[in-house]
Amino acid sequence: MPYSGLSKRIAELPKSQIAKIIKIAEEDKSIISLGPGEPDFPAPKAVKAALKKAVDKDFTHYSPASGRKELLEAIAKKLRKENKIKVENPEKEIIATAGSSEAIMMAIMSTVDVGEELLIPNPGFLTYRPTVELIEGNPISYNLSSTDGFQIHTEEISRLCTEKTQGIIINSPSNPTGTVLKKKVLEEIASLAIEKNLLIISDEAYEHLIYGDAKHLSIGSLNGMQDKVLTLMTFSKSFAMPGFRLGYATGPSELITAMQRFHVYTSLSPNTMSQIAGITALEKCRKDVERMRKEYAKRRKVILEGLRQVQGLEIEVEPEGAFYAFPKITNGMSSVQAAEFLLEKARVLTVPGNEFGTQGEGFLRMSYATALPKINQAIGQLKKFMK
Ligand SMILES: Cc1ncc(COP(=O)(O)O)c(C=O)c1O
Q: Where would I find the Aminotransferase class I/classII large domain in this sequence (predicted)?
């Protein structure tokens, strides 16, 4: 008899298309995939060597729940230098996590009680909503619209706040839109957070992947925000290390300490060997990050130019960060219809925009973390089939 004891909470998790999409792309190599949200580059050579060395030197044991001291110190140095975030005591103000996915889960579990509210972007990264729901909190969407560049409207945030609102998740550069939040918007959100006593969970997974004149600014570096912002970072995107499962969070020591306590009951710590490789990434691989960013910048130009020539799609907002284009569908098809049509006829895999929330309906997410010849091939197919 099939197992029937699944919890209601798990049975009600949204059935994400992403896992299905990744499986299709893996199984059928004739499909040109603009689907998955991970770098196509291998991890930097020095990182791979450091990982191998860590295995040979028997760094195969558990690590402390906060993360290894040497890694926390390297992260603190990077946060101070690159993000202008003040860190006084790395062991109390930073936690290393199994990717930022784990940090998102732990941050929400540590700050939102049953029935309390957390503001989340719509469209936004697809784990925010189910994670809040899993703990019986209330995710409240704030709308991002292409008509104003997918920037956040602070008046809307203010209107959505109730006495149950614990905080807000912001994500810049954004998955799925590629939008980089403007400094003015970040300053307004910071003021509002102080006024309403909100925690800002700032997901900066794509912090280094910025193009043109855009600049990445960590909201945690703004004056007076040290105790109001939990900043989430990862090695997955900029350093092309998604399989290492390594990320980190920094913020108020009370919250970080709570997350460290909680870590004992989740994964205990991220992979010890990955943590050692992470130190090498931070200390020796900034050139690799820049090399990959430059390549993404080239691909971004090609995909945007190409998409402008595809009937039935429109680039309303130029993405300035991450590695996603988010064209609008203008031929009347829904997101799912367009993605299915393109997969079947053009053999190009895209992600329906509604996967990221109701405001993503009518859009497709196309990842350009794919080699240039494939992007060119995909554009050729889109031009041929999309009407
Ligand atoms: C916005 C955003 N945040 C967090 C993550 C999680 O990444 P990881 O758990 O690999 O650090 C992703 C991955 O796609 C993402 O797009």
A: 30-370
Are 167 and 82 in a shared domain?
yes
Q: Which atom of ligand 1 is nearest to the CA of 247?
A: 11
Distances (CA, A) of 219 to 88, 197, 235: 18, 15, 19
Average pLDDT, stretch 91-120? 97
Which structural domain range is residue 340 located in? 8-43+287-385
Residues 112 and 254 in one domain: yes
Domain count for the chain: 2
Q: The CATH number of the domain where 93 resides is what? A: 3.40.640.10
In a domain, 2, yes or no: no
The predicted-structure confidence for 235-267, as pLDDT tens digits, reads as follows 999 999 999 999 999 999 999 999 999 999 999
Atom of ligand 1 nearest to the CA of 101: 9
Q: For residues 121 and 233, state if they share a domain.
A: yes
Report the distance separating Cα 50 and Cα 278, nearest Å.
Answer: 9
Task: Select from 169, 202, 237 the residue to mutate for testing ligand 1; criterion: most ligand atoms less than 8 Å from CB.
Answer: 237
Q: Give the integer Cα–Cα distance in Å for 107 and 116.
A: 14
The answer to whether position 1 is within a domain reads no
Q: Which atom of ligand 1 is nearest to the CA of 234?
A: 11
Which one, of 380, 309, 382, lies nearest residue 345 by Cα? Answer: 382
pLDDT in tens, 318-364: 999 999 999 999 999 999 999 999 999 999 999 999 999 999 999 99
The 10s digit of each residue's pLDDT in 305-330 is 999 999 999 999 999 999 999 999 99
The protein residue whose alpha carbon is closest to atom 3 in ligand 1 is: 205
Q: How far apart are CA 229 and CA 219, in angstroms?
A: 7
Does any domain span residue 196? yes
